[in-house]
Design brief:
Elements lengths: L1 E6 L3 E2 L5 E9 L6 E7 L6 E7 L4 E3 L7 E5 L5 E6 L8 E8 L3 E3 L3 E5 L2
Parallel strand pairs: 2-11
Antiparallel strand pairs: 1-3, 3-8, 4-5, 4-9, 5-6, 7-8, 9-10, 9-11
C-alpha cells in the first residue's frame, strides 16, 4: 500500500504562483509513475501532469508552459510548480501514484481569484 498526502493549496490572485507537494509513504519502490489530477466543481477529474522514474513528463495542454512537475531524488515527494495561475485553474488537486494500481491522496484546494 502507498499513502499520499498533498499540501500547498491556497487562495492566490490571477497571475500568481503556488507549489504543491505530495509526500508518499509505504511501499514506494514499485511505483513508476506519479502525477497530479484536478477536479473543479461540476467537472470530471482531469489529468494535469505526470512523471515517470525515467523523468518522462506529460502535461495537459491547458497547463503546458505554466506548470512543472518534479520529484525529489528518493522519489518520495512529487511537486507541482504552478505559475501564471488563472481562475480556470481553480480546483481540488489530487496526487496520484501508480504501480499496478492507482493510489490517490485526499486532495488540496487551489483557488485563483482576485
Amino acid at each position: 500500500q502507498v499513502q499520499l498526502v498533498e499540501s500547498g493549496g491556497d487562495l492566490v490572485q490571477p497571475g500568481g504562483s503556488l507549489r504543491l507537494s505530495c509526500a508518499a509513504s509505504g511501499r514506494i519502490f514499485p511505483i513508476w509513475l506519479m502525477g497530479w489530477y484536478r477536479q473543479a466543481p461540476g467537472n470530471e477529474r482531469e489529468l494535469v501532469a505526470t512523471i515517470t522514474r525515467s523523468d518522462t513528463t506529460n502535461y495537459a495542454d491547458s497547463v503546458k508552459g505554466r506548470f512543472t512537475i518534479s520529484t525529489d531524488n528518493r522519489w518520495n515527494t512529487v511537486y507541482l510548480q504552478m505559475n501564471t495561475l488563472e481562475p480556470e485553474d481553480t480546483a481540488v488537486y489530487y496526487c496520484t501514484a501508480y504501480d499496478t494500481q492507482y493510489y490517490w491522496g485526499q486532495g488540496t484546494q487551489v483557488t485563483v481569484s482576485s
